[in-house]
Amino acid sequence: MDSNILMKAENVSKLYQMGEVTVAAAKNVDLNIYKGEFVVVLGPSGSGKSTLLNILGGMDLPTDGKVFMEGEDITSYNDRKLTAYRREKIGFVFQFYNLMANLTARENVELATEICKDALNIDEVLEAVGLGDRKDHFPAQMSGGEQQRIAIARAVAKNPALLLCDEPTGALDFETGIKILTLLKEINKKYNKTVVIITHNVPIGEMADRLIKMRSGEIIEDKINDSPINPERIEW
Ligand SMILES: Nc1ncnc2c1ncn2[C@@H]1O[C@H](COP(=O)(O)OP(=O)(O)OP(=O)(O)O)[C@@H](O)[C@H]1O
């Protein structure tokens, strides 16, 4: 396998049998994600984005096909290995931040890194996401954008191979959303982290190094963007 490839999906399908009807949430998906790339997966509701993210993140298995992370076939993993895969290799960022309300920002990040082998320095990462002076505050004392920064710090501090973000700006107002996208781009560059964002928000695609469009479970377009724009220039 090309050593620049971080993840590879080969002919991945996910079928659901609903009585007489078979729903293909993913259909013959072939995909390469290269190391250090900033990838945006775009598609309308129901196009299969979450299905793909769940499969790449080791939260779900395809009905057909194979998925490789750093050359290892994760679809052959048992539950124990998949748990270790999610813990070590993937940093998740979701629309809702899923923070522990009774822990401070710093403790939220610390908790996630405790079980990881190559965790980064927590204070440095909190500084990098702009929360250096807020780390002893509790989530309820912080804005939505700040809470998403904690969630990003928590994902990054694990030092995963891939940051998987599901509608990371979905719960934020426009300006805060742009700041979060700017932060994700900075993390991508500063830590050379591969980032995949899935979203239905078309303008976000303009900041991608690679843009993947999905429709009805299929990839209908997969193209390199030669001139990704600075997130601060995105409008929606
Ligand atoms: N557990 C399930 N059982 C049956 N059908 C499912 C299941 N999960 C997903 N699907 C179907 O698979 C298709 C793709 O769903 P998916 O959630 O991946 O889309 P999506 O692009 O993430 O949508 P959204 O942006 O609304 O979250 C949809 O038609 C959905 O109804």
From TrEMBL:
Keywords, ordered alphabetically: ATP-binding, Nucleotide-binding, Transport
GO MF annotations, alphabetized: ATP binding
Signal peptide positions (record): none
Pfam families: ABC_tran (PF00005)
Domain ABC transporter: 7-236
InterPro entries associated with the record: AAA+_ATPase, ABC_transporter-like_ATP-bd, ABC_transporter-like_CS, MacB-like_ATP-bd
Highest taxon of the lineage: Bacteria
Family as reported in the entry's similarity comment: Belongs to the ABC transporter superfamily.
Protein name (Swiss-Prot/TrEMBL): ABC transporter ATP-binding protein
